[in-house]
Amino acid sequence: MIIVMAVNATDEDIKQVITHAEEIGCQANLLRDSSRTIINVVGEERNLVREQFSLLPHVENVIPVLKPYKLASREFKQNDTKVEVKGATFGGQKIIVIAGPCSVENEEQLLLTAQAVKTAGASLLRGGAFKPRTSPYTFQGLGKDGLKLLAKAREATGLGIVTEVIDISELDTVLEYADLLQVGSRNMYNTKLLRELSKVKKPILLKRNFSATLNEFLMSAEYLLSGGNDQVILCERGIRSFVEYSRNTLDLNIIPAIKKVSHLPIIVDPSHGTGRNDLIIPMSRAAIAAGADGLMVEVHPNPSEALSDGEQSLTPDAFRQLMKEVKAVAQAVGRDV
Q: What local confidence, expressed as pLDDT, does residue 2 receive?
């Protein structure tokens, strides 16, 4: 519910609205500009009685938020949200590119990759330390040792670190090392994990589940926002469909759809979205043309020897070509890389 205060509303009037919201178990968010004060009230719908707010002093208008996702909607916030991670701003003029290996395998592999993507123009380094895999017999990651190697790569290159947290029990450990915490597609529906992440003071990269609708995707973001973490970045990584020529179907339709209904930034993962290294560059071009705020690409110095997802990883040379082609598309649509 959006409460619009009259121009002559006093600080006491505003405080009375916020106090009433809190008394009925709701969360009140105050937004002010030079001419108007707006209070966004979020809580259980049965507690939000329009008349109770409209009768308070100097309340000019009470507007219900119709979307099931409240804080993530443009009804709540019209201006685009910008999320800053180690000097990289998602949702701004610049296209942010995250690159690195699917899994941290060893120090040499990680440092070679980090230096290569840094030189090519990547803003952040990705790397999995805890790896949720489909098969229990495949490489599961190095755990905390992998996080330590990521920290070493950050020290060597200056790149911020993006890595996945897959369980509440590992959250404190990952928080110690990561600059941007990734919620993988499997955990998009893990509301217990989302509630814990809503309390942290670091940005969250939320990946869409391969079966999730737009509403379900934004409702998962709502869990993060409703707990107080407003630093949320969405990531499209492909949905499951009937096609047999790619790992997933990269749903680029969702980019302009999200931009229309939500203020949150959205990036695209063409590596998981296609599962094929020969499709990554063309789909990256398409993602930027569709309005994506960034990319997350898997890069490995020798994909044929990768312990995970080698078939969807670019070589450093191919990544340099991607950056060149993406820059041309970004300029064509009025963005920078």
A: 85
